[in-house]
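The following block was generated as part of the benchmark described in Methods. Ligand: MTE.
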Amino acid sequence: MNILKRRSWELPEREATPEHIFLNRRQILAGLVGGGALLGSGLGMRPAFAEDDPSAGLYPVQRNPAFQLDRDLTAEDVASKYNNFYEFGSHKQIWSAAQDLKIRPWTVTLDGLIDNPQTIGIDDLLAKMPLEERLYRHRCVEAWSMAVPWSGFALADLVRLAGPQTGAKYLRFETFHDPSVASGQKQSWYPWPYVEGLTLEEATNELAFMATGVYGKPLANQFGAPVRLVSPWKYGFKSIKSVVRITFTDQRPVSFWEEIQPKEYGFWANVNPSVPHRRWPQASEKLLGTDERRTTLLFNGYEEQVAHLYKGMKGELLYM
Ligand code: MTE
């Protein structure tokens, strides 16, 4: 008899969406896209992504069944109306202001200690990368969480495209900087542009993902269109939005929040329920769109995939 050992983030079978239902939905959505009739989630909502987004025909993409959840997905209208994107304001209702961001043309520059430095247009990048959908938990340091169906590609594939040289130890990610569309960037006390970083080992871990879509469609601007990082074992502030540059370096990047308040936000920022933030206890989290609170899991439930990355590290504040 084959005994399958289920990993901590995998769904009990009874809670999983049967493949035929998922495929039918994909076929229906694909048909709607082809006919130019896709309206939001197909339920009469206002379109959640730019109507002229040239990547619309790429979605929905095939779901990778290796990445499943232990909870229901957060409703799309909840996840897309409660966002942190300080470029457009320091509150959660930035979704409408974020529509001012023009996401075409858009390029991503790969530079630093790599063999293949390049500036690549987002649609050329999308054409090169194998796209898939993954269901991930998404945990903010403010002690709320969502469960999100991201579409995109493994960050490891982008690292391969760049061809890191021996000295490359870190990836430094940078967001666009344009105060004329992002009024938050007129606030000079913030160290714009938003910057984040990962080690090369973290970036090539199976979980590290570049999202270009969500809920079976291109990313809506408020989620960080046209491309954002998703590192689900870390607090959400690591998941930098609307990326324009990735620099491979031997220097540990100082991230946006770390520069503002190093006593509260560190480089590693791995989720840990037993290490409270100065302002938010981390033992449990509110599941947005529900009345439920849940116990927070170490590494946000991805311990099996990532704990080895941090073995034997001494003197590092791994959980802030
Ligand atoms: N990226 C940029 N460029 N600007 C931001 O303000 N906020 C971060 C992160 N990425 C942020 C960002 C924070 S604090 C969180 S919790 C997540 O985005 C929120 O992602 P969501 O709006 O998709 O839930």
